[in-house]
Amino acid sequence: MNKIFLYNTLTREKEEFKPIDKKEIGLYTCGPTVYDYAHIGNLRTYIFTDILKRVLFYNGYSVKHIMNITDVGHLVGDMDMGEDKFEKGARREGKTAWEIAEFYTKAFQKDLGNLNILPPNKYTKATDYIKEQITLIETLEEKSYIYKTSDGIYFDTAKFKDYNKLSHLRLEELQEGARVEKNEEKKNFTDFALWKFSYRDGRPFDSSQDFARRQMEWRSPWGVGFPGWHLECSAMSMAELGEKLDIHCGGIDHINVHHTNEIAQSEAATGKKFFNYWIHGEFLNIAGGKKMAKSDENFLTLENAFLKRDIDPLVYRFACLQTHYRKPMEYDEESILNTREGFRHLVSQVVNIDGTKGKIDQKYKDKFIEAINDDLNMPQSLAVVQNLLKSKLKNEEKIATVLDFDRVLGLRLEDMVEQAKGIALPEDIKIMIVHRNKARQDKNWAESDRIRDEIEKRGYAVEDGKGGIKVYKK
Ligand code: AMP
Ligand code: ZN
Fold first, then answer.
1. Ligand 1 pocket residues where CB is under 6 Å
2. pLDDT level of residue 467 (50, 70, 90 thresholds)
3. What UniProt keywords are attached to this protein's entry (predicted)?
């Protein structure tokens, strides 16, 4: 098996990837918070993890991929303060929090389909794993990592050695980067909520004092409430991947808080290392280097930036392939329109290769593997594709090799080749073409001639190219 090198945020180094179990790799990607549409920044992160997964497949691994759907507990503030995004979304749209989550989950899955992102083996919803999350808090309670305040149960980060092992930041640096949200009752600035009470002190609902019930709440040993946002990813990854905690991914905004907290609570509970490789994608920014964010409400969705304007969403996938996942990417109109031209050019280069699939060229394949296995160097892999297309290789080898590469690129090139060849051809003519190609492969010239005459009788011209045939209406 070829070596794969990946940049691990834990060590800040490109490391050779070594799976826990050679047969199947465990991959966990932090999924969306489904209170609104995903923006194309979020989708950049999912394109990067899709490429990672396809690279693992291409290298011959099988992958068990879990993606969570955050449908509860993500608060507006970064530090466990403020309103729940779902309750807020529900008010905004006059729906229940559950309906909001369901609607935007479906919209998200549609986006993934449009971008040719392979679905995970399982989507895990935070609300389906409340029991596992409570059990995790109980374990932390037994080990004395938690304390209670009037609004919830918190993890005491001072008790966890190496709290900064992922962020590599000192407390003062973390404090500087965070928005100021005061919570006087917390023991340490970095402590985070494991369980939030629906009502202060976890007392029961009292209609004379409490404005309205939360829509999403559960009983727990500490009081009625809901889990803290970070908890779900620990509980669900351990429940679904067991010991196969190989790779955990997300955007770079997750490094200092979300993933740092996931590591703290998981390792405190189990005493074992929680995931070997932490891989993070850089942001999609808007002009001026500002991160595209849902909370800004001026974000672009796949629908409004691409589909509505009749731009193929795969143009966006192609744009993401052109920038290394650890480099910031800036979105602007002009560059997307240029990328569309670049994508059209690539498609026409491939579609116009006159030949049917032959042998994959090993020399180009080796170069392609070298690029993708070097921390997913997709810009370099596209350069290999261009060199291949311009090379003097036989058409049959060219087409076979580029379509093989598309298992990683995910640009649906094979579909486009088929469409271009088959457009406007009736089904029975397409079947005759398949049979004729087979006859030619078998050097059965008599049969090949017979089928050609048959096709021509139906009003279609047949042109025999070097590697295959072209058929079009006379
Ligand atoms: P969220 O739905 O906010 O939980 O985010 C879903 C994923 O998108 C997370 O992995 C984030 O790190 C990532 N993300 C958020 N904003 C951006 C952005 N502007 N560019 C790239 N990834 C992002
Ligand atoms: Zn997560």
1. 30, 32-33, 41-42, 44-45, 250-251, 253-254, 281, 283-284, 291-294
2. very low
3. Aminoacyl-tRNA synthetase, ATP-binding, Cytoplasm, Ligase, Metal-binding, Nucleotide-binding, Protein biosynthesis, Zinc
